[in-house]
């Protein structure tokens, strides 16, 4: 008597394979949706390390003249404080949009006697010159990328799937900004408000994603806390 064998006829049923493929499709869609959801949280974003005043003071900056001068960054804010934008990439239309935002504060900053500066991490072709219509303050070169530290943070391909980046891009595009792809653009930048003398860092905004602009009201609130140095305070 022959032993009974398992009935494998279900393997010939096309509906079985259809169901299997459907299950795989649902699983793949679920995994993709979960990955997209996680990419749009801050879970995998590198956390910024706050920059101490002593760290910022010692940064070497260069002027962008034909015969550049190297100086310590503290010169920028020693007397009257300063607002400083660490530009991620001058050719980026998102950076140009944020620069134009900051420039809208220039009349108020001038009234308060607080200068507005920018630093870039490289000088590529005419990128800095082409950035100046959007940022009319002085621009300096930070070759060692210290203003992007103490711990440099990068956003790579994750930026392509973050809804915030798409929103920032749409907002900048709608505002009429355009750009190019020249230069390094993955190291994230930020904006600082630094008080005069040893007053310290009053605001430190670090980009968490491409096009993450600083809150202008927060900048003004921080600027109003700056106490300009007097001859007496400089001697003390």
TrEMBL record:
<comment type="similarity">
    <text>Belongs to the peroxiredoxin-like PRXL2 family. PRXL2A subfamily.</text>
</comment>
<dbReference type="GO" id="GO:0005737">
    <property type="term" value="C:cytoplasm"/>
</dbReference>
<keyword id="KW-0963">Cytoplasm</keyword>
<keyword id="KW-0049">Antioxidant</keyword>
<keyword id="KW-0676">Redox-active center</keyword>
<feature type="transmembrane region" description="Helical">
    <location>
        <begin position="20"/>
        <end position="39"/>
    </location>
</feature>
<dbReference type="InterPro" id="IPR032801">
    <property type="entry name" value="PXL2A/B/C"/>
</dbReference>
<dbReference type="GO" id="GO:0016209">
    <property type="term" value="F:antioxidant activity"/>
</dbReference>
<comment type="function">
    <text>Involved in redox regulation of the cell. Acts as an antioxidant. Inhibits TNFSF11-induced NFKB1 and JUN activation and osteoclast differentiation. May affect bone resorption and help to maintain bone mass. Acts as a negative regulator of macrophage-mediated inflammation by inhibiting macrophage production of inflammatory cytokines, probably through suppression of the MAPK signaling pathway.</text>
</comment>
<keyword id="KW-1133">Transmembrane helix</keyword>
<keyword id="KW-0472">Membrane</keyword>
<protein>
    <recommendedName>
        <fullName>Peroxiredoxin-like 2A</fullName>
    </recommendedName>
</protein>
<dbReference type="Pfam" id="PF13911">
    <property type="entry name" value="AhpC-TSA_2"/>
</dbReference>
<keyword id="KW-0812">Transmembrane</keyword>
<dbReference type="InterPro" id="IPR036249">
    <property type="entry name" value="Thioredoxin-like_sf"/>
</dbReference>
């Amino acid at each position: 008597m022959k032993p009974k064998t398992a009935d494998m006829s279900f393997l010939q049923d096309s509906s079985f394979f259809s169901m299997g493929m459907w299950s795989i499709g649902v699983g793949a869609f679920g995994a993709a949706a979960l990955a997209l959801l996680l990419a749009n949280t801050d879970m995998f974003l590198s956390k910024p390390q706050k920059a101490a005043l002593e760290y910022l003071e010692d940064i070497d900056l260069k002027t962008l003249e034909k015969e550049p001068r190297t100086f310590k960054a503290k010169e920028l804010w020693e007397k009257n404080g300063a607002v400083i934008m660490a530009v991620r990439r001058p050719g980026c239309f998102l950076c140009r949009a944020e620069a134009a935002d900051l420039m809208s504060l220039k009349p108020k900053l001038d009234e308060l006697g607080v200068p507005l500066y920018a630093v870039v991490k490289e000088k590529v072709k005419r990128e800095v010159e082409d950035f100046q219509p959007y940022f009319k303050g002085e621009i300096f070169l930070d070759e060692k990328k210290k203003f992007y530290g103490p711990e440099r943070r990068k956003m790579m391909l994750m930026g392509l799937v973050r809804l915030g980046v798409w929103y920032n891009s749409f907002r900048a595009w709608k505002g009429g900004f355009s750009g190019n792809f020249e230069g390094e653009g993955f190291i994230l930048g930020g904006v600082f408000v630094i008080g005069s003398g040893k007053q310290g860092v009053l605001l430190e905004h670090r980009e968490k994603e491409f096009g993450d602009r600083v809150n202008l009201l927060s900048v003004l609130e921080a600027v109003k806390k700056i106490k300009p140095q007097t001859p007496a305070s400089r001697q003390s």
